[in-house]
Amino acid sequence: MSLNSAPSAERIHIGFFGRRNAGKSSLVNAVAGQELAVVSQVKGTTTDPVQKAMELLPMGPVVVIDTPGIDDQGDLGTLRVRKARQILNKTDVAVLVADGTTGITAVEQELLELFKEKQIPYVVAFNKEDLRNAKHPAWEDSMLENSIKVSAKTGFQVEVLKEMIARLAVANEPKHRIVGDLLKPSDIVVLVTPIDKAAPKGRLILPQQQTIRDILESDAVSVVVKENQLKDTLKHLGKQPAMVITDSQVFAKVSADTPRQIPLTSFSILFARYKGDLEMVVQGAAAIEKLQDGDQLLISEGCTHHRQCDDIGSVKIPRWLKEHTKKQLQIQFSSGTEFPEDLSGYKLIVHCGGCMLNQREVKYRFKCAKDQGVPITNYGIAIAYMQGILRRSVELFPQALACLPEQHG
């Protein structure tokens, strides 16, 4: 991936929802201006969510998602509906596509309640305006707030619909940057990026790329080194860096090589603040001390990369947890879009930094944990905690530091 290519996790996710044959796929194609979804007169043609990263004016980089009909039936239909509901967890703006010839039904009402429950900005698009006639009086009675009449077939008001979606998307932008709000022009930031088997050949991993981009946008200077070059680099910079940011896997070495007066943090910690809830994951790390023999833990990754022989999530962190606690722990794993709805059996969740998930999905997972009373932390926080350097690693963030009991490093 090049630095000028917006990753999917940073794009606005626009989900199209509705009943079968309401014209969702046709409207997706009309909005996108290309054939993204298969269209037919057969109910249930869309069997799985279809998503496409693209540039969509006036919004810019987006991910457009077409979902199966929410009223699908049978065992397979139930699975399809479940998949459609999962898409809600990463939807930044929802488009409820209603059949304008029949108006709002209980199915649309249920979706509207879900949008409100999950606090998803939405617009209701009454499709098939080209078919409207006196036989369908329910059409005029069905108009709701933030709704619009459209026709996927003729293009009627499709551009207006896109402008409505764009306004909702702008209002839903993240409040934090990755690191830029902590920097001044000409500040130097040293990034420690180990090159190991897990690093994609020929490029840096996504959090490193995004952090470098954010530093450059702040008119600051990024200096990228491997862990064995840090000490020498700091000696020869000629100016104290504003901070050192490290990959969590080499936290202990980097902490030892970074003078105490230089602020130190990690990519995982920055992304916890950027996408999730830094205070929650700092508090969650303290649960490591309470683990007992037989306790179940969930280690969850947002991506589905090929696991290496010494993978950070499936090998290193489980090993470090068992060494630190001296307990026989039962560790389960999830990856990609799969995240358990029932978390009640877990004593702790250790999540990745979430670089492949958008902010809404990360926040959804954190909220699930909070609602079910299960502590959640992330890779970088857990590693810093177990290595006794968490306090130092979050000193840049006073609110998070206040969540850490004095006795915990």
Secondary structure elements and pairings:
Elements: E1 12-18, H1 24-32, E2 50-56, E3 60-66, H2 74-88, E4 93-99, H3 106-117, E5 122-127, H4 138-141, E6 147-149, H5 158-171, E7 188-192, H6 206-217, E8 221-225, H7 230-236, E9 243-246, H8 251-257, E10 264-266, H9 267-275, H10 278-285, E11 296-300, H11 312-325, E12 330-334, E13 348-351, H12 359-371, E14 376-378, H13 379-386, H14 390-393, H15 398-401
Describe the structure.
The structure is a single chain. The chain is 34% helix and 17% strand. By secondary structure, it is α/β, with parallel strands linked by helices. A six-stranded mixed β-sheet has the order 2-3-1-4-5-6, with helices on both faces. It has a four-stranded parallel β-sheet with strand order 8-7-9-10, with helices on both faces. Strands 12-11-13-14 form a four-stranded parallel β-sheet, with helices on both faces. Helix 11 packs parallel to helix 13. The radius of gyration is 24 Å and the shape is globular. The chain starts with 11 loop residues before the first strand and ends in an 8-residue tail after the last helix. 43% of the residues are buried. About 1% of the residues have low confidence.
Summarize it.
This protein is α/β, with parallel strands linked by helices. It contains 15 helices and 14 strands. The two termini are 37 Å apart.
- Kindly state the mean pLDDT as a whole number? 85
Strand order of the largest sheet: 2-3-1-4-5-6
Question: What does the main sheet amount to?
Answer: 6 strands, mixed
Strand tally is 14
Order of helices and strands: EHEEHEHEHEHEHEHEHEHHEHEEHEHHH
* Beta-strand proportion: 15-25%
* Low-confidence segments: 42-46
Tally of separate helices: 15
Taking the alpha carbons of the first and last residues, their distance comes to 37 Å
Radius of gyration: 24 Å
What gross morphology would you assign?
A: globular
Coarse structural class: alpha/beta
Helix content: 25-40%
